[in-house]
């Protein structure tokens, strides 16, 4: 049934089991734009669709234009005809889903009927009556068809969450399964490159992840026979670069108020350890009310930002920071650096600017691969809480990249260091690390054992300062498939 699908082993098995369940299934597959939702479903099921439709993108539409609704309906009707519908044209969503019901009933009850509606949020244009019609289709007909499997998909994950998964209306508690498709992990990226014949060292793969964030579509644009630096210039800095406008396109396609969300991302991108809601409101000028709440919720649902508590801080003291590697790359090198140099990346490979970015982004990638880190430390089965720690001292306060608080009475104090070779701890670094641990113990008053863990690319040079490191996690450990 399926072509070769890279990664997605869990999701593929889940979808296959649901297809074979012999029950009515209403499945939501969500994930950010370009992450491969449509590809997974299309390649897995191929010719099994009883009906398949993709909503028209609203990016180029004026939502006040009265033709927008009719354009969506016309496209839906075209899909109906493609799958065998021979009835009248449609002028409302109630008629559209009545036509879909007629089409499916005409195909009988013997075979599993797979209905896939892609980019569902795009169909819900203002005052269109889409949601009541869709709710009626499932509640009044689909939920009683044991041979029906309905899959809906969308990049606007906040819409999916509000209107489907957390619906307070007719779809409350009606879905049967949810799949959140995440970007590839490092190992899945490696498998993707191998499948396409792209030869790249793991160090370069790690840096490619810093740029692409593991988004399959971006990975697919990397050409074999070119160095990573050449590929980055081709994709972002060359004239008419394929991803030269991707940041704006990404936000414009996902959000009703993209400029507000881009403003928030830009503010958060200035702070390595993020900002509190109050700090963000003050810096951005966005009132700390419903507007800011909605934007933060939407950005987090789409995987652009994450919310974190300080290790020993109150649960209400939440900090937000950018966690999407593509956005971090864009903020560092496209937003700030309006270069016309088409060889920008190749000409700045060893610059302090790129080295600072590598260090910060490596920390972010480590947070995205916490399961791999726990596995490397031999604590995969131990209950843990993982977060950064910032001293509350106003002057000279320490900061720790990652704290892994374990249920077995140990805390791993993790220091991330990106390096092109084995990392060397010198006297100054040793004093800095010891100072961080002392500050952490003094301020948190923890009674647990503190173990310094170094997470780096290759290894650790053994010298008079290296004994303070209790455990070592290497780049290769991050490539584990967990």
Task: Describe the model.
The protein is elongated, with a radius of gyration of 25 Å. The chain has 482 residues and is of the alpha/beta class. The protein has helices at residues 9-19, 37-45, 67-82, 93-105, 130-140, 157-165, 186-195, 202-212, 216-220, 228-237, 246-254, 258-268, 277-284, 290-301, 325-335, 344-347, 352-368, 370-376, 427-444, 475-478; strands at residues 25-30, 49-54, 113-118, 148-154, 177-180, 275-276, 305-309, 318-322, 384-390, 399-406, 410-417, 449-456, 471-473. α19 (427-444) links the parallel β11 (410-417) and β12.
Mean of pLDDT = 92
Helicity, in percent?
40-55%
- Class of secondary structure makeup: alpha/beta
Report the portion of residues in β strands.
15-25%
What is the β-strand count?
13
Rg is 25 Å
Parts with pLDDT < 50 across at least 5 consecutive residues: none
- For the termini, the CA-CA separation is 26 Å
Our count of helices gives 20
Judging from the principal axes of the Cα atoms, what is the shape? Answer: elongated
Strand order in space, largest sheet: 2-3-4-1-5
What's the main sheet like? Answer: 5 strands, parallel
Question: How would the blueprint of this fold be written?
Answer:
Blueprint: H1 9-19, E1 25-30, H2 37-45, E2 49-54, H3 67-82, H4 93-105, E3 113-118, H5 130-140, E4 148-154, H6 157-165, E5 177-180, H7 186-195, H8 202-212, H9 216-220, H10 228-237, H11 246-254, H12 258-268, E6 275-276, H13 277-284, H14 290-301, E7 305-309, E8 318-322, H15 325-335, H16 344-347, H17 352-368, H18 370-376, E9 384-390, E10 399-406, E11 410-417, H19 427-444, E12 449-456, E13 471-473, H20 475-478
Parallel strand pairs: 1-4, 1-5, 2-3, 3-4, 11-12, 12-13
Antiparallel strand pairs: 6-8, 7-8, 9-10, 10-11
Helix pairs in contact: 3-4, 4-5, 6-14, 8-15, 8-17, 11-12, 15-17
């Amino acid at each position: 049934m399926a072509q070769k699908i890279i990664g997605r082993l869990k999701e593929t098995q889940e979808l296959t089991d649901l297809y074979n369940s012999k029950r009515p299934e209403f499945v939501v597959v969500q994930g950010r734009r370009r992450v491969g939702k449509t590809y997974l479903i299309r390649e897995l099921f191929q010719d099994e669709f009883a009906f398949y439709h993709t909503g028209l993108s609203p990016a180029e539409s004026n939502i006040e234009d009265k033709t927008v609704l009719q354009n969506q309906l016309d496209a839906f009707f075209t899909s109906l005809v493609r799958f065998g519908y021979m009835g009248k044209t449609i002028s409302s969503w109630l008629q559209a889903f009545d036509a879909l019901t007629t089409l499916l009933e005409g195909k009988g009850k013997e075979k599993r009927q797979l209905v896939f509606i892609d980019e569902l949020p795009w169909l819900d244009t203002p005052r269109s009556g889409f949601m009541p019609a869709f709710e009626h289709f499932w509640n009044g007909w689909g939920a009683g068809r044991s041979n029906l499997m309905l899959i809906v998909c969308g990049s606007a994950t906040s819409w999916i969450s509000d209107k489907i998964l957390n619906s307070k209306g007719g779809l409350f508690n009606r879905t049967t399964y949810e799949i959140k498709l995440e970007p590839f992990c490092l190992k899945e990226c490696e498998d993707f490159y191998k499948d396409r014949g792209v030869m790249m060292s793991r160090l370069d793969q790690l840096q490619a992840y810093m740029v692409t964030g593991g988004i399959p579509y971006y990975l697919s644009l990397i050409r074999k026979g070119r160095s990573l630096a050449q590929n980055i210039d081709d994709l972002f800095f060359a004239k008419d670069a394929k991803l030269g406008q991707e940041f704006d396109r990404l936000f414009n396609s996902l959000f009703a108020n993209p400029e507000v969300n881009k403003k928030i991302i830009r503010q958060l991108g200035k702070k390595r350890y993020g900002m509190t809601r109050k700090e963000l409101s003050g810096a951005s000028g966005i009132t700390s009310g419903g507007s800011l709440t909605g934007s933060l919720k939407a950005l987090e649902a789409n995987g652009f930002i994450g919310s974190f508590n300080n290790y020993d801080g109150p649960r209400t003291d939440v900090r937000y920071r950018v966690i999407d590697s593509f956005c971090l790359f864009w903020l560092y090198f496209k937003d700030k650096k309006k270069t016309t140099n088409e060889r920008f990346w190749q000409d700045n490979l060893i610059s302090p600017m790129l080295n600072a970015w590598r260090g910060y982004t490596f920390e972010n990638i480590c947070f995205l691969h916490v399961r791999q880190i726990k596995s490397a430390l031999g604590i995969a089965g131990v209950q843990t809480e993982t977060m950064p720690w910032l001293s509350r001292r106003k002057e000279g306060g320490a900061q720790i990249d990652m704290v892994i608080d374990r249920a077995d009475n140990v805390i791993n104090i993790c220091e991330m260091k990106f390096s092109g070779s084995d990392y060397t701890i010198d006297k100054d670094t040793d004093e800095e690390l010891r100072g961080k641990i002392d500050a952490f113990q003094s301020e948190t008053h923890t009674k647990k054992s503190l173990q310094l863990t170094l997470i780096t690319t290759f290894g650790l040079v053994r010298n008079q300062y290296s004994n303070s490191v209790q455990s070592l996690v290497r780049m290769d450990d991050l490539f584990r498939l967990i």
